[in-house]
């Protein structure tokens, strides 16, 4: 579990937890509306930076512009997504019935009462440290192909590429031949996409 | 070091007198200027402080009916008709009895400007020169504005924003030239305002830009602004797109084209925007662009002074915005002149011409007095500055 | 007045982000900080750049907000695209807050040895021109080649920097030399016009001549060598394009930065 505040938004308290061997994903998914956390399918996340970047973007949008969804937690899911379609964002990054690795994010604002509910009370699984090493263990191209019916596109100005790694990234309409050679390169491209989406 | 007294005044006088003739656009101006002969000018960069005394500054503007611009042919005719009368009037005001004894040099606008009007004034200048046996000097119009602005405001080394009907430039001095740092890529700001005034069919007197300024002041809803293109490109700017867009808005407004959602409420058909709003938005947008490129040039050459010259420089709102920009910079200062010197006049031609003359630059052959429509500010060798 | 800007940026960053002023231009102010905007485990030894576009009082608020947002975003987009070009070294974009006009970037460069200041090209060349160094050292030549290659790569991909000066090129120490980074893309754009590329090269040449005049000829020659290498490596198509750019560069040099205009 990682608890922190963003320096620019000290009034918000963020908690991020990564669970492996989750056994009750189906149950979680059906009750997702009642659970005061953002539950993310960890297999689609390639680095902690991608995750934190989306949380930052969600706070920037809610503070200075407007919230597009009902809560900060759903806003996080939207910010992870390359498209501005809320339903698609939930389907893609939200938890799935057979999901065994889950990331839970809790954001408490200044007006929210200090929550006594812990993510551990909901998710049945082994909690591990939410670090790049653990996240990347589960990041898997085959899973992405299998679960994301509509191929997941990162729309990034005139660059359209498939969010997969390693090195099978298909690049279309891109005059530069960009293929991230490393996980770091992919993570950078995703962070950039998150920071600039829909603006 | 610069010696401004290289050429001594005629007939052992202790002062110089210059006659300036200006007619590059629709204004015909005649000015008589006096510089005392000062010992400190022999050794120093003091061209901004000549203790100039204006003996006469007369002007006549060719004004067209609302909705019409001035054509070169008609403007030239106007200048020909008035030139002699204005020169006589100026000489009388300056109490010059014998021009061949009392005038050191005759200065005329060599360019840039409209060919026909420039030409008609040049003819008058040549005639006077031959008649009185007084040397001639061809002056760059923009340099005239800059030198007059410096003399009036005593700005030592300012970044110059030159905004008029035919020119939009940001200029700074460097190594014997007034270098252009930024300029318009298509039409000049004054031209843009004049043409919009024509679309609005508002009077051309005293000047179309002035009338737009008055309309803008009366804008009731200054909180909201019409969104216009903002076209600054590095240190340059472009205005033709803005004009085309706001022109089409104005035309839709007059026609009552209810389909235009910017102007009319799509449901009730109520008019949302007035002519005053259009003027206000246009001014705010154009001037913001001007101030921005000026600020860029200031940062580029590390200067903290701005001098606004040219006809549009009279606009109080532009001066106000420039003032705000300068207040936010360390020791920023704005210098602007009033309409006597901002608008084209003969004195400024006399000022720049006299500086040239004092450095020993005169026309040696009448061939050199051919006017030119294109004459860039940085083509002039600025001998009188360090 | 600078105090005013610091106050403004502090009010949107909050008290938890200590900032230190680095540079000020007409449009933006650059600060450095040790705080990562969102990563809780980024480490404490790293530094970041915050590029802030303060609101301008002279502009109508609605123009100001729209412009700040557009420019902040434009620069971020460009940076993120440039980052994808193989071999091109530009700062990483960390975050973009277009509503306040802030861009967060990675901090590049370091202090030069013997108190010669920050490692931009300007200080680097000054260091090598100073006593105890050889201005024609092979390291200088190789570094300028590397810089030229960066510019070549930028132009080959149809981007123009718009404000190339020796202080907008930052060097980072690598094993046996210096790696060149281009920074400050505030005036940059995509452009396939030879004119823009020629002006870019001319602006850099002028900057080198005015700040490093004693050895400017060698420096500029080395820069151009590096620049040409990129084009030449692209075969005959590259050769033709290189010729076009260099010809235009010579034209621009003859007439000065500005096009002569009609009317």
UniProtKB/TrEMBL annotation, chain A:
Component of the EKC/KEOPS complex that is required for the formation of a threonylcarbamoyl group on adenosine at position 37 (t(6)A37) in tRNAs that read codons beginning with adenine. The complex is probably involved in the transfer of the threonylcarbamoyl moiety of threonylcarbamoyl-AMP (TC-AMP) to the N6 group of A37. CGI121 acts as an allosteric effector that regulates the t(6)A activity of the complex. The EKC/KEOPS complex also promotes both telomere uncapping and telomere elongation. The complex is required for efficient recruitment of transcriptional coactivators. GO terms for molecular function: tRNA binding. Keywords: Nucleus, tRNA processing. The keyword Nucleus applies. It is found in: Nucleus. Pfam families: CGI-121 (PF08617). This is EKC/KEOPS complex subunit CGI121. GO terms for biological process: positive regulation of transcription by RNA polymerase II; telomere maintenance via recombination; tRNA threonylcarbamoyladenosine modification. SUPFAM superfamilies: PF0523-like. Transmembrane segments: none annotated. Gene3D superfamilies: CGI121/TPRKB. InterPro entries: CGI121/TPRKB (IPR013926), CGI121/TPRKB_sf (IPR036504). It comes from the Eukaryota. GO terms for cellular component: cytosol; EKC/KEOPS complex; nucleus. The keyword Nucleus applies. Belongs to the CGI121/TPRKB family.
Automatic annotation (TrEMBL), chain B:
It is an enzyme of class 2 (transferase). This is N(6)-L-threonylcarbamoyladenine synthase. Binds 1 divalent metal cation per subunit. Its main location: cytoplasm. It catalyses: L-threonylcarbamoyladenylate + adenosine(37) in tRNA = N(6)-L-threonylcarbamoyladenosine(37) in tRNA + AMP + H(+). Keywords: Acyltransferase, Cytoplasm, Metal-binding, Nucleus, Transferase, tRNA processing. It is found in: Cytoplasm; Nucleus. The keyword Lyase does not apply. GO terms for biological process: positive regulation of transcription by RNA polymerase II; telomere maintenance via recombination; tRNA threonylcarbamoyladenosine modification. Transmembrane segments: none annotated. Its EC number is 2.3.1.234. PANTHER family: TRNA N6-ADENOSINE THREONYLCARBAMOYLTRANSFERASE. Residues 54-350 form the Gcp-like domain. Signal peptide: none annotated. InterPro entries: ATPase_NBD, Gcp-like_dom, KAE1/TsaD, Kae1_archaea_euk. HAMAP family: Kae1 (MF_01446). Its cofactor is a divalent metal cation.
From TrEMBL, chain C:
Residues 16-263 form the Protein kinase domain. Its EC number is 2.7.11.1. Its main location: nucleus. GO terms for cellular component: chromosome, telomeric region; cytosol; EKC/KEOPS complex; nucleus. One of its GO terms (molecular function) is ATP hydrolysis activity. The keyword Transferase applies. One of its GO terms (biological process) is tRNA processing. It catalyses: L-seryl-[protein] + ATP = O-phospho-L-seryl-[protein] + ADP + H(+); L-threonyl-[protein] + ATP = O-phospho-L-threonyl-[protein] + ADP + H(+). InterPro entries: Bud32, Kinase-like_dom_sf, Prot_kinase_dom, Tyr_kinase_AS. Belongs to the protein kinase superfamily. BUD32 family. This is EKC/KEOPS complex subunit BUD32.
